[in-house]
Structures are given as C-alpha cells and as structure tokens.
Amino acid sequence: MAQRKRNNDIKFLSSPQFGNNKKKYCRFKKAGIKYVDYKDPNFLLKFVNAQGKILSRRSTGNSLKFQRRVATAIKRARHLALMPYVADQLK
Known about the structure:
mainly alpha; CATH 4.10.640.10; elongated
C-alpha cells in the first residue's frame, strides 16, 4: 500500500507578524490630562470613526475613567452642535 505524501504546511500571502503587538496606553494618563474639554471638537474627532460613532476602549486604548469622560464630552459637543450626530465620511 503506497502512502501518499501530504503537504500540511500553512501558506500565507504575506509573512505573519506574531508577537509584535504594541501595548496600548491611555494617552490621557501619559500626558497628564485631567479634564476632557467638550469645546474642542478637533481633539474629540480622534475618538470618533468616519460615521460619527464613538470608538471603544479596546480600539483607542483609553482607561475606563477617561473613556467615560470622552463619551460624555462627545455627547455634550453633539448636543451643542459642535460635532455631528451622524456623518458620511467625517474624517
């Protein structure tokens, strides 16, 4: 009985990058920012995606305390019409 040779090698289109994940950090703690200003929409745009949705902690790297403050600041800026609620290609 002839044995067939199987090629079970995993092939990638590009070389995989394992272990090169950078540790996310809270930019507020690193810079020593204590207050998130809702009157600065250009700064708050960093925490919003192209449709206008607030980005999660997992993607921004904010701590829980500052993610809550950012979300509140974005909601206040929206209420005062400094930022749009919904947008097409905001960035």
